[in-house]
Amino acid sequence: MSSFMRSRDLTLIQDLRTCTITRKGGSWYISMLVNIADALPDVKPLEKCKSIVGIDVGINKLIALSDGSFQENKRISTNKRTARRMAMRQRAISRKLKGSKNKIKAAKKLAKQQHKLAQHRDGYNWQVAKVVVDTADAVAKEDLNIKNMVKRAKPKHDGETALKEGFPPQATANPKGKGGYKRNNAAQKTGLNKVILDASWGAIFDKIAWLALKAGKPVVEVSARHTSQECPKCGHIDKKNRKGEKFLCTVCHHVDHADTKASRTIGKRVGLVFLKNKKTLPADCGKVTPSRHQSDWVETLVPCLRESSPCARNSDSWIFKRYGRTS
Looking at the 3D structure of the chain, how many domains does it have? Predict the structure, then answer.
């Protein structure tokens, strides 16, 4: 029994609506939809909220919060080790004889592993959602159309082939082409789609909405347009402002971490004051630190390497040990 059910008095259940029994990954699960009166508090009006946290979802960082902290993207099923293991088990199924018992065993083994990864992802997303909801009185998030973001790359037709096959005029921009198709980076787009689906942004948003409803906190959706390209100081919008995790305005030269800046822009669009940078990590903006600060840090370490320094060591006094069968 989950902690959610243990924390509630089941004797207060007045209406049992549905009961569903399912089997996933070789295990049985029961799900009941019940009606408990006065189980959820009233959502606090947005005008009475004193603070708000903006969140920006991504790939390198699963969620960037407006207070400067991050939530790691563990890549449950797309990391190299797990992806290789899953590919091996899928190949093992394809090599088995169709309709054989060995093929059924291999399929069950793959299903069990996929269910285990899904449970790991679901549990981690609950932890991330709780951290986000507990940060402030309200949550601001982007209104993303994830379904369109994970579509495959469109094919690019090349010239003469497009004219012969009757494609629309926009596909015949190169009438002197050799025919066929151009490169459209379909492999890179496929890999990006897999990572986005593995991150499960939609499930995280649903979990944040449910936990916020239980806590009586509002969740506000804002437009995701130019949140990563808009400068927080001068308001200049340009694609060149962002390069990876770096943000450098081409007009006022404002420097910031791109994901943190985007989350703060999302929070500002709601019109409330977001929390100050209380959880800034030492390497929060490490990739965008000016070079002069890095050189000063290096110069402080140089004296320790001199012979006159007390921390310098003589190489003759070093002791080398070998570890293994012959040691």
Answer: 1
Query: How far apart, in whole angstroms, are the C-alpha atoms of residue 34 and residue 5?
Result: 11
- Among the residue ranges 51-65, 220-234, 295-309, the one predicted with the least confidence is 295-309
Tell me, yes or no, whether 123 lies in a domain.
Answer: no
Note the Cα 152 to chain centre separation in Å.
19
- Decide if 106 is inside a domain: no
Task: Give CB contacts under 8 A, 24+ apart, made by 112-116.
Answer: 112/25, 112/26, 113/85, 113/86, 113/89, 114/25, 114/77, 114/86, 115/24, 115/25, 115/26, 115/27, 116/25
Residue type, 85: R
pLDDT number for residue 310: 42
Cβ-contact 281, 68 below 8 angstroms: yes
8 A C-beta contact, residue 249 and residue 288: no
* pLDDT score for 204: 95
> With 90 as the cut, is the pLDDT of residue 182 above it?
no
Find the domain containing 161 and state its range.
3-70+135-298
Alpha-carbon gap, residue 186 to 193, rounded angstroms: 10
In a domain, 270, yes or no: yes
Q: Which residues contact 216 (CB under 8 A, 6 or more apart)?
A: 40, 41, 42, 43, 44
Detail the DSSP E strand segments found in the chain: 15-24, 27-35, 52-57, 61-65, 70-72, 138-142, 156-157, 181-182, 219-222, 242-243, 246-248, 255-257
Instruction: Indicate whether 322 pLDDT > 50.
Output: no
Q: What is the distance between the alpha carbons of residues 110 and 95, in angstroms, rounded to a whole number?
A: 14
**Residue 226 belongs to a domain:** yes
In this structure, what are the phi and psi dihedrals at residue 289, rounded to the nearest 5 degrees?
-70, 130
Residue 6, CB-side half-sphere exposure with 13 Å CA sphere: 3
Residue 304 pLDDT class (50, 70, 90 cuts): very low
Which pTM value belongs to this model?
0.72
Is the pLDDT at 290 greater than 50? The verdict is no
